[in-house]
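Students often ask why we bother encoding 3D structure as a string. The short answer is that it lets us treat folding as translation between two languages. Here is a chain of 181 residues written in the first language.
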Amino acid sequence: MIFSLFRKNPRRTTIAILYARIASASRAPGLYTALGVPDTLEGRFEALSLHVIIALRALRGLPAPAADIAGDLTDAFFQDLDAAHREMGIGDTTVPKRMKKLAASFYGRANAYDAPLDAADEAALAVALGRNACGTEAPATGLARYALAAERGLKAADLATMLEPGPVFPKPEDFAEEGNR
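And here it is in the second language, the structure alphabet:
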């Protein structure tokens, strides 16, 4: 009985690896240098949220157990945010309030990006990403093109590909506006 506490859970390991790959893609320097995402705490949250949203949307279209994996991925995302806040020294009484705000922001972004991603509407997505991810009224056209390409790539992958080699995101630099290269 006690030894079961020390066994590795293969599903938990799979989710941790999947989340780590998504988080790594969200930290690609080109997102910040070429596509205009601010290299701030908020900008990094926006980049991570965008990548998690795209991965969740890809999982949504796959057969079982993709829905369970999507739920576990969402849990891993919020657990990571919680741990990051605690590491920054935010008090135990404040973390739940901040997590509530972050969850509202995340689901708001997911809702705002859903229709433009569904329609592959680059202009509408650029406006939403400019406002949310870049904190500006200017459309984030390069970031929108990047997100649409990532969406296409991940939706073409099957569940085994999403899990084993992991999701492959395009190079952000390939989507930079001419003036940002």
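Translate back mentally: The mean pLDDT is 90. Keep this in mind for the problem set.
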